[in-house]
């Protein structure tokens, strides 16, 4: 027993110790926007999924960190709009500051439609200016024409000072949730909050998978619009992962249902009620935060619980309402989506076992998360940057909510949540590599009556944590305008809603 505990402690020290090392690198990075790819060889015409691969490489600038794939390489997700292919996410390469002079661009025929699979291979100098997009650059190989822009940066979108200031303005309360299956005694949920003396409205923030609240710019926005702010990390999630015996199992949900978080949310709502008698309460849900909230909300509504009427509106930011079968940083493809929805989470042999579908056997960084840290420099002790396990437990919890939502849509033969019940703002991005943008839109418009839908182009999965301040400002402005319209006539709630 003592030996096993020692190994866990040793791993935790190694896990968090490695995370700290990402701060030791003086990073420089290049963003790469593809404007168009035209005049593909005629053999590609008429194919359902013409799939040339575009890859970026920089020579030199390597860092002594186990990051997979290496940050000095990037392969674009292949996405297509109309008949001209345009890749919506921004390319990204990172390296040691001042150690790189050129970027190599490759376009390859990975499907081997042609005998010569290298369609284009050229080098271009890195941008001279810092923090500015270049003019459009055109590369040609025979008739094939690639048009793109680049931007070189040496500073993150947000720096450590922004988080220090944010955390100075946030208080924290922890809720005991002893006795939960699969967790050691004493694990707690964490509610961070900020209150303004004259504020009469509140927003409750539900983070996504392996996430926590790390948005100083969002806190500033809601504060300026007169909202008190609350962000809940349920037990075993986000900043509470440090209470786990093994942080690789953050967000695991051993109970295999998000009903396990109902007590956490109940306590957070009760704390909000005791703090103030709010005129209006807004929910902000990102990614997995959407099924966590919707499971809670529909559970309360089904049981005629007055807490359901506590909420007045909802913002959905890249909501996880279906497995993204075409998203490379998510489940990967339609076959794996079928595997999750119809085998791993249905057949008792798999569904009843705590299996890892993605195992974090090695202590290493995943580029998807390392990229976000390089761009945002979030506090190491509350960030999950190194590899983690993706478990059948988690998949079961999410998929149960997806099935509940689908069943509710079919049963209601219309919109499950009416506009008068919960006005909804949906923000999703074509550049989302975690979920399939179209599925997020289709599910939200099926659930909510007349949601205001904004489909962005180059924003990240979390549209407010995108690759540049300019991209972040797009959803921030959308939120500002929507808040003004939605809460213009919201007055005092009926007392019964606060009993």
What does this structure look like?
By secondary structure, this protein is α/β, with parallel strands linked by helices. The chain folds into 2 domains: 28-153, Immunoglobulin-like (Sandwich), CATH 2.60.40; 160-498, 3-Layer(aba) Sandwich (Rossmann fold). Helices cover 28% and strands 23% of the residues. It is built from 11 helices and 20 strands. It has helices spanning 2-21, 160-169, 216-224, 262-275, 289-302, 334-344, 348-351, 367-376, 392-412, 437-447, 469-486; strands at 27-38, 53-58, 67-68, 73-75, 91-96, 102-108, 118-125, 137-141, 144-153, 171-176, 188-194, 201-206, 227-233, 280-286, 313-317, 356-358, 365-366, 390-391, 424-429, 452-456. The strands form 5 sheets. The protein has an 8-stranded mixed sheet with strand order 10-11-13-12-14-15-19-20, with helices on both faces. The protein has a 4-stranded antiparallel sheet with strand order 5-1-9-8, with no helix packed on it. Strands 4-2-6-7 form a 4-stranded antiparallel sheet, with no helix packed on it. Strand 8 and strand 9 (144-153) form a beta hairpin. Helix 5 crosses helix 9 (392-412). The longest helix has 21 residues, at 392-412. Mean pLDDT is 85; it is low at 1-8 and 492-499.
């Amino acid at each position: 027993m003592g030996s096993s505990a020692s190994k866990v402690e040793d791993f935790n020290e190694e896990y968090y110790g490695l995370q700290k090392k990402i701060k030791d690198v003086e990073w420089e990075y290049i963003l790469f926007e593809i404007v168009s790819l035209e005049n593909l060889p005629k053999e590609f015409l008429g194919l359902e999924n013409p799939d040339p691969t575009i890859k970026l490489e920089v020579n030199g600038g390597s860092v002594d960190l186990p990051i997979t794939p290496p940050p000095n390489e990037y392969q674009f997700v292949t996405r297509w709009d109309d008949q001209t292919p345009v890749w919506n996410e921004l390319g990204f390469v990172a390296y040691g500051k001042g150690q790189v002079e050129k970027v190599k661009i490759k376009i390859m025929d990975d499907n081997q439609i042609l005998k010569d699979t290298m369609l284009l291979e050229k080098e271009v100098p890195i941008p001279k200016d810092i923090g500015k997009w270049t003019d459009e650059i055109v590369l040609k190989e025979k008739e094939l024409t690639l048009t793109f822009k680049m931007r070189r940066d040496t500073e993150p979108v947000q720096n450590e000072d922004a988080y220090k200031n944010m955390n100075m303005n946030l208080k924290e309360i922890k809720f005991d949730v002893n006795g939960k299956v699969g967790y050691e005694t004493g694990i707690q949920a964490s509610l961070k909050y900020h209150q303004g003396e004259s504020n009469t409205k509140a927003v409750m923030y539900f983070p996504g998978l392996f996430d926590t609240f790390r948005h100083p710019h969002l806190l500033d926005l809601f504060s300026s619009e007169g909202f008190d702010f609350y962000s809940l990390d349920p037990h075993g999630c986000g900043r509470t992962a440090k209470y786990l015996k093994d942080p690789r199992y953050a967000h695991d949900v051993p109970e295999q249902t998000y009903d396990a978080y109902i007590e956490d949310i109940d306590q957070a709502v009760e704390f909000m009620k005791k703090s103030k008698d709010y005129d209006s309460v807004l929910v902000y849900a990102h990614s997995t935060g959407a099924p966590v909230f919707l499971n809670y909300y529909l559970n309360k509504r089904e049981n005629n619980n007055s807490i359901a009427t506590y909420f007045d509106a909802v913002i959905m930011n890249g909501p996880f309402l279906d497995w993204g079968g075409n998203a490379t940083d998510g489940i990967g493809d339609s076959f794996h989506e079928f595997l999750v929805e119809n085998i791993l989470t249905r057949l008792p042999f798999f569904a009843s076992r705590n299996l890892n579908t993605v195992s974090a056997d090695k202590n290493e960084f995943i580029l998807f998360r390392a990229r976000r840290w390089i761009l945002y420099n979030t506090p190491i002790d509350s960030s999950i940057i190194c590899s983690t396990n993706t478990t059948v437990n988690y998949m079961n919890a999410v998929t149960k909510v997806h099935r509940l939502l689908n069943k509710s849509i079919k049963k209601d033969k219309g919109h499950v949540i009416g506009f008068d019940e919960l006005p909804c703002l949906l923000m999703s991005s074509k550049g989302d590599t975690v979920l399939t943008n179209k599925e997020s839109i289709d599910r939200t418009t099926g659930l909510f009556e007349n949601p205001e839908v904004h489909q962005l182009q180059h924003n990240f999965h979390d549209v407010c944590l995108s690759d540049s301040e300019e991209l972040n400002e797009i959803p921030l402005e959308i939120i500002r305008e929507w808040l003004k319209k939605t809460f213009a006539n919201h007055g005092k709630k009926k007392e019964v809603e606060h009993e």
